[in-house]
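2024-03-11 09:14:02 INFO worker-7 job=invfold-0412 stage=load source=structure_tokens
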């Protein structure tokens, strides 16, 4: 019998990450409940949750791991959603122990998860990672205490709640997002343990999980990429694009993202995958990538590229000057047209010109003239009205005088 313990990250007063739209402890519980219900439909498996609500006090990492140990878990899985300090990172990742069989089992399962989150659901692949604490053991409590209790333990960071390329998935699918993620997580467990489900009509008994070996600790990369150099391959000032080759290397992990600045490093673009295809859902494991960059119209640009490795350490490139893009004729005509309008407005304010338009009242070329015309029209109307009133009053008085004469 396979035993799996699912830990919905955070709980109680510990909200985890949260934005204006999302609260992590709520999202993790939604996914965990779906995952639990889905796994229960597989044969020969027992499934447990470390919590089933958000109101009970938050459990410590050690207490959560102890629940897994009390159930003799074969795998302990903690579910999370990610955020980054600058709200610019995106993608999915899985954390596991750095040591021996716990890395081998955790990373093997994590490979299946990343195939699902990236390959099937389209999240950017941030990889399988380890992290070491100051005491030389696993940094994250779930993993640290899990391995101390002889349980392979992993943390799944499904996506980033604070970056559009990830939360667009949550917006697009709404509440179904958590059903999709929970079912995918459950099926990853089924694949790893080669489970079958007669009720679901699924059979993973022949599934081959990746086999990984760790003869020594698999340590994280805590150093920045060693090199980052850029060179201009071509510049088309007419079309306004430049082709730039970016050369970067990191001996401890792969280059994952890049971003660039056109003002010498003052401001940068959003993160892009280290790949010739900027729409790619993953980085490519090569040192050279070409990028097409738009030139600034009418002025030179100071280009700097910043590259990031899998652990988000970065290195800046050398600076190269890109030529200015030619200002197109249409843009020039538009600018000249705008200048012409300004000159006409100036003339209308200097000279009281009124141009007659057939069938319409003359159009004033200056707001001052317009006000004069409107004022004159009002004065004329008032004068005409007063004249009519005076005529009527005078006429009335004459009639009254005639009547008095007849009486006497």
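2024-03-11 09:14:09 INFO worker-7 stage=emit residues=408
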């Amino acid at each position: 019998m396979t035993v799996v313990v699912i830990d919905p990250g955070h709980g109680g007063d510990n909200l985890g990450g949260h934005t204006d739209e999302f609260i992590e402890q709520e999202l993790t519980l939604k996914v965990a409940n779906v995952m639990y219900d889905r796994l229960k439909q597989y044969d020969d498996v027992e499934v447990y949750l470390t919590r089933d609500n958000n109101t009970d006090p938050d459990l410590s990492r050690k207490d959560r791991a102890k629940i897994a140990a009390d159930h003799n878990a074969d795998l302990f899985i903690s579910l999370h959603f990610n955020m980054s300090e600058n709200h610019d990172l995106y993608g999915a990742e899985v954390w596991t122990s750095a040591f021996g069989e716990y890395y081998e089992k955790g990373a093997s399962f994590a490979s299946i998860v990343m195939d699902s989150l990236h390959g099937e659901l389209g999240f950017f692949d941030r990889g399988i990672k380890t992290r070491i604490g100051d005491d030389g053991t696993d940094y994250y409590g779930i993993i640290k205490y899990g391995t101390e209790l002889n349980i392979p333990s992993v943390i799944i960071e499904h996506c980033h709640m604070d970056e559009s390329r990830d939360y667009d998935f949550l917006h697009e699918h709404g509440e179904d997002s958590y059903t999709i993620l929970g079912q995918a997580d459950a099926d990853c467990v089924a694949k790893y343990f080669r489970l079958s489900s007669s009720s679901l009509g699924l059979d993973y008994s022949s599934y081959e999980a990746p086999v990984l070996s760790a003869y020594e600790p698999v340590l994280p990369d805590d150093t920045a990429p060693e090199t980052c150099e850029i060179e201009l391959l071509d510049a088309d000032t007419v079309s306004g694009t430049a082709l730039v080759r970016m050369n970067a290397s990191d001996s401890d992990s792969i280059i994952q993202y890049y971003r660039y600045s056109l003002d010498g490093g003052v401001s940068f673009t959003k993160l892009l995958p280290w790949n010739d295809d900027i729409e790619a859902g993953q980085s490519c494991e090569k040192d050279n990538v070409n990028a097409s960059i738009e030139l600034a119209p009418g002025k030179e640009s100071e280009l700097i590229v910043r590259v990031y490795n899998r652990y988000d350490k970065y290195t800046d490139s050398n600076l190269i000057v890109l030529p200015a893009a030619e200002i197109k004729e249409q843009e020039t005509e538009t600018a000249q047209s705008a200048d012409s309008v300004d000159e006409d407005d100036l003339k209308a304010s200097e000279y009281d010109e009124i141009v007659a338009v057939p069938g319409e009242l003359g159009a004033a070329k200056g707001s001052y003239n317009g006000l004069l015309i409107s004022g004159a029209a009002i004065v004329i109307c008032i004068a005409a009205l007063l004249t009519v009133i005076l005529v009527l009053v005078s006429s009335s008085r004459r009639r009254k005088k005639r009547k008095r004469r007849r009486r006497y």
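2024-03-11 09:14:09 INFO worker-7 stage=report msg="The first strand starts at residue 2 and ends at 8."
2024-03-11 09:14:10 INFO worker-7 job finished
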